[in-house]
Amino acid sequence: MRSATLVVFLVGLCACCCVAQNGVGTAVRAELNLNNSWSYVLNQPQIIPTSGWQTRRAPELPIEDGTTSVWYQQKLNVPSAWVQPGRRYFVKVGKAGHYAAVYWNGVLMGEHFGQYSPFEVEITNLVAGTNVIDIYVHKADTTYVRPGVNINQSGCPKSVPDCIGNSYRSHALQGPLARNWVGLAGDLTFSWRAAQYIADVFPNTSVRNMTITVPVSVSGTGTAAMAKGTVLDGATTVLTLPTQPVTNGTATLSSAWTTAVLWGQPPYGQPKLYTLRTDLLDGNGKVLDTRFDRFGFREVWVSGKDVLLNGLRLWAVGEYPSTISPVVYVNDRRPAAFWLHIVEQTGFTSVSGHWDDLDTAMLDLADEMGILVVSSVYCSGPEEKSHVQVDNVNGWTNWMTSTITEWVLAVRNHPSIVMWRPTDLLPPKINAAVAWPMFNAAVRASDPASRPIADGSDVDWWTESWGTNKCDDLSAFAAKLATDSIPLFTKEVAGPYSLSCLPSFFNNLYGLSYATGSGGAVGFHLGRLDLFNDTPFTVTWFSISGKGNRPTSSNSLPNWTARTYTPALYDAQFAGLFQTYTGLPLLNTSPTSGDYQAPGIPSGAPTAFLSSLDGTGNPVGVEVAADGTGTAWFVVPTTGNYTLSYNPGNGDINQNVTVTAPPPF
């Protein structure tokens, strides 16, 4: 741990968060989203600044201009109704690059290396009435690369000043500084739970056996004796999992489930999502903790030369966005949902982050819209372009192995993830024959389900470049298909999009891949294909993160505010190929989570909460927009009936509201 310093209260902090709803305060769990305006200072050492603070939105897009570090700060008032004996408190950071340290009231409470997964730190025993949260982020350099090292990058070329630090960051084509970006790019939350609580659940569903098995992990101290599970479809109970004893902090719940609706896009099923309620009980049956997790009933497995989803051959064709694409890092459901809608209308069924995992908003939307995800976190990029060095082969490999473990545990409950591909191209000196088996073991230990790993183990991989002057004749690809003994996924198809032969090449590639039947082709992903034509528009919108620090033109985002776009060059061709070969209509799904904007909240109530009246979730809170609109925007996993509550300083205001899904595109 690094040295901490006492915090100083400063001018420029955002408004205090002060709400005292007794109903929220007595809940066994609650979560407050802290996305809003934060104070910040750039390029300072890891000592909390006492001056120089300005204001910016957090989370925000990655800062890729060479900034070394950022201090973020926000003030949080915790009402006495929230502070109860035995309660545990946490701060969660959705995505930060590369190093992040969380301070609570000037005390360093936890640190994290790597942009690839959310992390949380416990702040129990430090929560007071008035609190200050400080978060320090730093690029990968010196002591900020991985724990226990201090690298010297003085020998790096001027063109790549972070040649060693860059080996820990995923590839970015925008320039030598973009890869080693800094900033808070994911949701920020404050939460509480019981002294003994449910730390993790994993709804593992089997279509072949029509069963659900749920390993439950328990943390903390208390009198927990049993765990039980209830599967909800909206507010309706559809399955009860028999109560099981908690032994050494674990329990396993299981049940047959023959009436489950299968998750997936047609023909695999529908993007049906259920909610698992898990209760932790003491010996007298008293509920100690309750946790809600969303999941889908589906199974992916390998059979011969095929990958099967719910027993049908998987066809995952799609694309991955450019590096540091705003549609991934904008951390906003509206543009992400519209981009996935365009993906569907292009005839694609799947997406991949390729060089960094899709953020929580995008993965949640993929679950809701039935988009298949090939989940990945790291690509070093072509060796001749990346110019990276590894400080220590064993140190780098061990760090990446632990990072992959953390990542899989964080995202494994998303049914949209149908294949894992932890890493792509590796840095020089890292031997894939040694590293990939270690990464695979980490994935399997965290996800014992049957989802295949597409790195040559469960599923083979292929890279297809169509050439620079003429298009490839695909003979090498055909030979690979013919000789492979396991399924083959073409993880990347790339080249210049201006060649006149390209339409014919795409036809041949699609036909050869799909028509193999059981010949082994799982699908392919195109790299950085334009899906819509740019039409400039003024970006002014409200979201869960308020206004500010957003892309300013449609060069990076489609105009989802008007819900219009002009298809790009190859959209119609791929849409036609999908319909011709699969015989299915284009996908046209919409988000299904609850989306509620509460306007006109008084300035004296900087936070607001939604509490489910249907018993489908714990209370969720947001900070009221700092732009003066008095708007609170909520996203809840389940639509239904809620109580909206806030306190402007003269008593609780409670209003029953109905939360619905956003309208279809």
Beta-strand level of the residues, as a percent range?
25-35%
Counted beta strands: 38
Shape: globular
Number of domains: 4
The biggest beta sheet, please?
Answer: 8 strands, mixed
Helix % is: 10-25%
CATH architecture of the largest domain: Alpha-Beta Barrel
Strand numbers in spatial order across the main sheet: 9-5-12-1-35-34-37-38
Unreliable segments of 5+ consecutive residues: 1-20
Q: Radius of gyration in whole Å, from Cα?
A: 25 Å
Ends: how far apart? 48 Å
Mean pLDDT, as a whole number?
90
**SS class:** alpha+beta
What is the CATH first-level class name of the largest domain?
Alpha Beta
Our count of helices gives 10
In CATH terms, what is the fold-level topology of the largest domain?
TIM Barrel
